Amino acid sequence: xxxxxxxxxxxxxxxxxxxxxxxxxxxxxxxxxxxxxxxxxxxxxxxxxxxxxxxxxxxxxxxxxxxxxxxxxxxxxxxxxxxxxxxxxxxxxxxxxxxxxxxxxxxxxxxxxxxxxxxxxxxxxxxxxxxxxxxxxxxxxxxxxxxxxxxxxxxxxxxxxx
Length: 162
Prior knowledge:
Layout: H1 2-11, H2 29-47, H3 54-75, H4 94-97, H5 106-125, H6 130-144
Helix pairs in contact: 2-3, 3-5, 3-6, 5-6
């Protein structure tokens, strides 16, 4: 009972603040809806060009999404917000900061499965042609492999090490 009383005394008048905002906004289901809607909007914009075929627009959507995803999630380090983490996350990528590094959370599963579904949609609407497979596989692998647990906090070839 005394431990509980001291706990209450410590909590009076304090506000709980997440030290790293990167760990919070991605967990929201509203973000998942907005993320999906933005990729649908990207595909709609790619489909608006009259000279572009369906398979080309899906390929462009996939590659733009995957390259942007790699850049934001796996290349840029630190916190884009004025975080109160005292620089603890300055050497971590955005992906490594999600859920404080805990693997296989719902947020991470969503961000792993989304490029897979987009890749399969691209293959389906292109008729499973070999050319589209060759053009879409590098960007897919660039996005998919860094998200795997064995790649957590790994830097290949010294890129983005410091």
